[in-house]
Amino acid sequence: METFVKKRSFISEARSPQKKIKLESDEGMEQDEEDEEFSHPVPWQKIEAEGLDCDYALLFSKEEADNLCKQLEEEVVYSTGEEAKVQVFGKVYDIPRKQATYGDAGLTYTYSRVTRLANSWTPTLEYIRDAVTKTTGQAFNFVLVNRYKDGQDHMGEHRDDEKELDPLCPIASVSLGAPRDFIFRHRDARGKQSLRQIEPVKLELAHGSLLLMNSPTNTFWYHSLPVRKKSSLPRINLTFRRIVVDRKK
């Protein structure tokens, strides 16, 4: 059963299972004038489950999102060599998408046992970062860029819970290009020997959208972007993070 999530609505195990959440278009959302949780009001939708706390909004119009996508295609330089590989259970594989890392000078980020140095911000990445900061009131010093050439490129289940990330800062995910399904799965409901029966939370992330993954989401929920063979267009995803500099020393 598909359910529309209204602003500040709540999804929990106690209610009927959620197969897929339909996120509303900008025409279908209304802004609560009394809601001052974010610094620059946009029509937010609240997505919640046990241990999952996310906020979703359309941050850019289609025209602006189209332009930003085009500019990123010209500016971003993607990783090659060892940085384009990932280690899973001791085996090394090519990452099934293109990746790049940008941020403040000297920052590094380690995941999948590979340490990546931040490249200097490009003008377009700075513009998007500042737009996210203006909207959320949160400051970010690093971004991971993932480019999916089509629906064959994908991302496996994982959590963004690395020690160098500020646990009090949400991860801000900006999507540009082809809409793709994004699936959350509770850590206790993974695999054949799962401890509990908890329905996954499934979203479709739109062109120009912003998804905030707030604490404690990445403690309890894995997320993935599965293969979608019918999708033939590219997608660029930017996940803005805040790295705690003192922990890197």
Report a brief summary of the structure.
With 249 residues, the chain is mainly beta. It is 13% helix and 36% strand.
Secondary structure blueprint with pairings:
Layout: E1 2-4, E2 20-22, E3 45-49, E4 52-58, H1 62-75, E5 85-88, E6 91-94, E7 98-103, E8 108-111, E9 114-117, E10 119-120, H2 123-136, E11 142-148, E12 155-158, E13 171-177, E14 180-186, E15 201-205, E16 209-214, H3 217-220, E17 221-225, E18 235-241
Parallel strand pairs: 1-2, 7-10
Antiparallel strand pairs: 3-4, 4-16, 5-6, 7-11, 8-9, 11-18, 12-17, 13-16, 13-18, 14-15, 14-17
Helix pairs in contact: 1-2
Could you characterize what this model shows?
This protein has 249 residues and is mainly beta. The protein has one domain: Sandwich (Jelly Rolls), CATH 2.60.120.590. Helix content is 13%, strand content 36%. The chain contains 3 helices and 18 strands. The protein has helices spanning 62-75, 123-136, 217-220; strands at 2-4, 20-22, 45-49, 52-58, 85-88, 91-94, 98-103, 108-111, 114-117, 119-120, 142-148, 155-158, 171-177, 180-186, 201-205, 209-214, 221-225, 235-241. Strands 3-4-16-13-18-11-7-10 form an 8-stranded mixed beta sheet. A 4-stranded antiparallel beta sheet has the order 12-17-14-15. The protein has a two-stranded parallel sheet with strand order 1-2. Helix 1 packs across helix 2 (123-136). The chain starts with a strand and ends in an 8-residue tail after the last strand. Mean pLDDT is 83; it is low at 1-19 and 26-36.
